[in-house]
RNA sequence: GUCCCCAUCGUCUAGCCUGGCCUAGGACGUCGGCCUUUCAAGCCGGCAACACGGGUUCGAAUCCCGUUGGGGACACCA
C-alpha cells in the first residue's frame, strides 16, 4: 500500500477563507488518520492577484487553527521550469500546439457564440495550423481528446461520466510563459505524488480537463474527492456579505480554534448523532463515506453554540491562555492582576496564574465567546469597581446602606476569607433583619462587581479576596449615600 | 445556452448502499416549564421535514424514471 499524500493548495489572493479551512481540514484529517503526508502548496501563478501578505495570512490561519503540514509551503512561482519543461514534452508528443489567437479576439468570439446560444468553447482554429512561437507571444494549448468519455470515480460523489466532446483545448502556457491553473496543478500533483486530490465542489468540472493531461504526460491519475460547498443563509455561495468569512476574523471575535474545527467538520460530515469531537476522535472516526454530497448552509448560531461548549468544557488553562490577547486588547494590561500573569505578553509560553484559571472557571458558564469572557472577567481586574449607573441607582440606595454596613462589620471581624463562614454570616444577617435574600444580595453584588448580574456572590468574594471585598463594600456604601 | 453536481424539520444532520425495526431519530435555534440571591448554565417538555409526479414491490424516506427547484463550471482566474 502506497503512502497517502494529500495537499491543500490555496491561491494567495486574500485572507484564508472558512471554506478553505474546511477543505484543508478534511485533507489533514485523512492524512493524519492514514499516517500519510499533508502538503501545503501555494498556487500563485496569477502574478497580478497573488500577494505575499496573503501567503502570510494563509500560514497564520493554518497555524492558528492547528492544521500542521508535513511538506511545504511550496510556491508554484518557484517551480516554473517544471511546468515549462512538461509543457514542452506535450508539444513534442503532439499533444499541445501553439495558438496565436489574441485574448481580445477570443473574448469577442466567445461573446458572439454565447449570443447565438452556442457553447462558448474554443473553436480550435489554431489546432492544426502547426504554428511555432517565433514571436514569443503565442499561448500553448493542450490538445484535449474530442471523442469518448472521461470517467471520474469520485471519493464522495461516486462515478461521474463526462463527454469529451464538450471539452475544449485549454491553454496550459500563457503567452507570458506562465502556466495556467489546470496545468500547474496536474504537474504538481503528479510530481508531488499526490494520491488523493480533495478539493471543493467547484473544481468538479475541472477534473475531466485535468485527467487527460495526467494521461498525456504519462502520470498515474490520482483519486479525486469533491467536497460540497458552504453556502450562506440565502443558499448562495458563502461570501463576505453573509458576514465574516476569514478564519482570523473568528479568532478576533473570540472563537476557539478547536471550536472552529469542530463546527466546520460537522458541516458536511457526521458520525451518527455525535456533535462534539476531540481532534483525536475526528482523526479516528473520519471517513469519506460519511461526507455529505450536498451543499451546507453556514449557521453562525450553531457555531456560537459549539464555541460555548468548548469554552465550558476545555481545560480552563487553555482557555485562559487564549484569553490573554483579548484581555490586553480590552485595555486590562495596566491592572495589577494582569501584570501578575507571568507570560501574558509572550503567550506561547508559560501558564496562566491560578487566579486567572479560577476566574475563567467562575465565568465560563455564562460566556459564548472569549470577547464575552472578557466582559465577564473585567470587574475582577483592578482595585476599584466601575458602577453601571442603572445598577447603582437601583440598588445602592441610602435605605440599604445600613444593612450593608452591618454586613461589612461582620466580615471585617473575620481575619481571612472563608466561603462557608462568610456565607453563614450573610445568611444569618438576612434572617435577623427579616429581609429576603435578594434584598441584600443585589446591593452587595453591585458593590462588588458594579453590575446586577454576576456569578455566585461568594465565588465572587473568593476571587476578589478578603481585602478587595471589604474595600469594595465600603466603596459601595459610600456610593449609596450619594445616590 | 451547454455540461456537471445536489434534494429529510428554518439550519446542521441520522436513516438510504444492504427496502419492512421510521406513527422519521439527534443537534442548533425557537416556544413553555422546573431550578434559583442576579445573570447564566443545567434539566424536562412542545412546535417543526422525507420537493413533486410516475413506476418496481406484499411493502419505499430508502430502488428506477421524469419534473421542479437549488448550486457549480464553461477565462491567457484559481
Inertia-based shape? elongated
Oligomer: single chain
The N- to C-terminal Cα distance equals 79 Å
The averaged pLDDT comes out at 92
- The strand order across the widest sheet is 1-2-3
Q: Beta-strand percentage?
A: 5-15%
- What's the number of helices? 20
- Low-pLDDT ranges: none
Structural class: mainly alpha
**Overall number of strands:** 12
Helix content: 40-55%
Biggest beta-sheet profile: 3 strands, parallel
Gyration radius, in Å: 31 Å
Q: Secondary-structure map with pairings?
A:
Layout: E1 5-8, H1 18-33, E2 37-42, H2 52-64, E3 71-75, H3 80-92, E4 96-99, H4 103-115, E5 139-142, E6 149-154, E7 158-163, E8 171-173, H5 181-191, E9 196-200, H6 207-217, E10 223-227, E11 230-231, H7 247-252, H8 257-266, H9 279-285, E12 296-297, H10 300-313, H11 316-329, H12 336-340, H13 354-363, H14 370-377, H15 389-395, H16 401-412, H17 419-433, H18 437-449, H19 457-464, H20 466-481
Parallel strand pairs: 1-2, 2-3, 9-10, 11-12
Antiparallel strand pairs: 4-5, 5-8, 6-7
This protein binds one RNA strand of 78 nucleotides through helix 4, strand 7, helix 5, strand 12 and helix 10.
Amino acid at each position: 500500500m502506497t503512502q497517502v499524500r494529500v495537499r491543500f493548495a490555496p491561491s494567495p489572493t486574500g485572507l484564508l477563507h472558512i471554506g478553505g479551512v474546511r477543505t484543508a481540514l478534511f485533507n489533514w484529517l485523512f492524512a493524519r488518520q492514514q499516517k500519510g503526508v499533508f502538503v501545503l502548496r501555494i498556487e500563485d501563478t496569477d502574478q497580478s492577484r497573488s500577494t505575499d501578505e496573503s501567503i502570510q495570512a494563509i500560514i497564520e490561519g493554518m497555524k492558528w487553527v492547528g492544521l500542521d503540514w508535513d511538506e511545504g509551503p511550496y510556491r508554484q512561482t518557484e517551480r516554473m521550469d517544471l511546468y515549462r519543461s512538461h509543457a514542452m514534452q506535450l508539444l513534442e508528443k503532439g499533444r499541445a500546439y501553439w495558438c496565436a489567437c489574441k485574448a481580445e479576439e477570443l473574448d469577442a468570439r466567445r461573446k458572439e457564440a454565447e449570443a447565438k446560444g452556442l457553447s462558448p468553447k474554443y473553436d480550435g482554429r489554431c489546432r492544426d495550423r502547426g504554428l511555432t512561437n517565433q514571436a514569443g507571444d503565442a499561448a500553448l494549448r493542450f490538445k484535449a481528446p474530442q471523442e469518448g468519455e472521461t470517467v471520474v470515480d469520485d471519493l464522495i460523489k461516486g462515478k461521474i461520466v463526462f463527454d469529451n466532446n464538450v471539452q475544449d483545448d485549454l491553454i496550459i502556457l500563457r503567452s507570458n510563459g506562465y502556466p495556467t491553473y489546470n496545468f500547474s496543478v496536474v504537474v504538481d500533483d503528479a510530481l508531488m505524488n499526490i494520491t488523493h486530490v480533495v478539493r471543493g465542489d467547484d473544481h468538479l468540472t475541472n477534473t475531466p480537463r485535468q485527467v487527460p493531461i495526467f494521461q498525456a504526460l504519462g502520470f498515474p491519475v490520482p483519486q479525486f474527492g469533491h467536497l460540497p460547498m458552504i453556502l450562506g443563509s440565502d443558499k448562495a455561495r458563502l461570501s463576505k456579505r453573509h458576514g465574516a468569512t476569514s478564519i482570523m476574523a473568528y479568532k478576533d471575535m473570540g472563537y476557539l480554534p478547536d471550536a472552529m474545527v469542530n463546527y466546520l467538520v460537522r458541516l458536511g460530515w457526521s458520525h451518527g448523532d455525535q456533535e462534539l469531537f476531540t481532534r483525536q476522535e475526528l482523526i479516528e472516526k473520519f471517513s469519506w463515506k460519511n461526507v455529505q454530497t450536498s451543499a451546507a448552509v453556514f449557521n453562525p448560531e450553531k457555531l456560537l453554540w459549539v464555541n460555548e461548549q468548548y469554552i465550558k468544557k476545555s481545560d480552563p488553562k487553555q482557555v485562559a491562555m487564549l484569553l490573554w490577547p483579548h484581555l490586553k486588547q480590552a485595555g486590562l494590561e495596566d491592572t495589577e492582576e494582569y501584570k501578575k500573569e507571568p507570560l501574558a505578553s509572550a503567550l506561547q509560553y508559560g501558564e496562566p496564574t491560578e487566579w486567572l484559571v479560577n476566574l475563567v472557571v467562575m465565568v465560563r458558564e455564562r460566556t459564548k465567546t472569549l470577547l464575552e469572557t472578557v466582559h465577564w472577567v473585567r470587574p475582577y481586574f483592578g482595585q476599584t469597581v466601575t458602577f453601571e449607573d442603572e445598577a447603582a441607582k437601583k440598588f445602592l440606595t441610602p435605605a440599604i446602606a445600613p444593612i450593608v454596613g452591618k454586613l461589612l462589620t461582620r466580615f471585617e471581624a473575620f481575619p481571612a476569607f472563608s466561603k462557608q463562614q462568610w456565607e453563614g454570616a450573610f445568611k444569618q444577617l438576612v434572617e435577623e433583619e427579616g429581609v429576603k435574600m435578594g434584598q441584600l444580595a443585589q446591593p452587595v453584588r453591585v458593590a462588588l462587581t458594579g453590575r446586577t448580574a454576576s456569578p455566585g456572590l461568594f465565588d465572587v468574594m473568593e476571587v476578589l479576596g478578603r481585602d478587595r471585598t471589604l474595600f469594595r463594600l465600603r466603596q459601595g456604601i459610600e456610593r449609596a449615600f450619594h445616590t
